[in-house]
Amino acid sequence: MTVADIRQSYEKFELTEASLAADPFEQFALWFDEALKANVPEPNAMTLATTTLSGKPSARIVLLKGFDSRGFVFFTNYLSRKGHELAENPSASLLFFWPALERQVRLEGSIEKVAGEESDTYYHSRPLGSRIGAWVSPQSQPITREELEERKEKLTASLGENPARPEHWGGYRLDPQRVEFWQGRPSRLHDRLVFQRDAHQAWTHVRLAP
């Protein structure tokens, strides 16, 4: 078998206009709940794609930590590569892929930092090691393993059991303008239903050819 021979037939579900929820947040909640019930590994793992002002793209996996009608939230180091790119160009794309359900969700929109209080609340809900880790890692900067372990040892001793959230760490919220729900179907004739905001910020939807 070669790479070109690898293929999967998608035959589990369908996505019709009649079954589609009234807005993308409701539809995402339905699909996310089904991913949880199906025991999909890390169902909140998503690809975050960003670009520089010059259009140079980069992508990485981050974890969804909350969503509602305001948008989709994740947390990270503001001084990381993604943080610098989002400061330059506050637009991004998110992609969820749940292969066990033969589904993808793609979101595109503007992005901004969440309120400090929201970042504080999530930060203090994390395990102690993760809270200290936010101080330890100068994310995206060159470092040796020995330097990283040395920083961990020193900061674990100095920060104590209740470290404050570092100013360089917190949340972002993506406010989607376009959300595509993709359901795999046989013969590559997949279902692609897209929600998009119109000029009045109301949601409309359309089917796209696969």
How would you characterize the overall build of this protein?
- By secondary structure, the protein is α+β, with helices and mostly antiparallel strands.
- It has one domain (9-123, 169-207): Pnp Oxidase, Chain A (Roll), CATH 2.30.110.
- It has 5 helices and 9 strands.
- Strands 1, 2, 3, 4, 5, 6, 7, 8 and 9 form a 9-stranded antiparallel β-sheet that branches.
- The radius of gyration is 20 Å and the shape is globular.
- The mean pLDDT is 96.
Keywords:
210 residues, alpha+beta, Pnp Oxidase, Chain A, 9-stranded antiparallel sheet, 5 helices, 9 strands, 27% helix, 33% strand
Explain briefly what this protein structure is.
The protein is of the alpha+beta class and about 210 residues long.
Helix content: 25-40%
Give me the number of helical elements. 5
Looking at the structure, what is the overall shape?
Answer: globular
Estimate the strand proportion.
25-35%
Distance between the termini: 26 Å
User: How many distinct domains?
Assistant: 1
Briefly note the structural class of the backbone.
alpha+beta
Mean pLDDT, all residues: 96
CATH topology: Pnp Oxidase, Chain A
Specify the CATH homologous superfamily: Electron Transport, Fmn-binding Protein, Chain A
> What Rg, in angstroms, do the CA atoms define?
20 Å
Low-confidence stretches: none
Any idea of the CATH class? Mainly Beta
Q: How many E-type strands?
A: 9
CATH architecture: Roll
Largest sheet: 9 strands, antiparallel
H/E element string?
HEEEEHEEHHHEEE
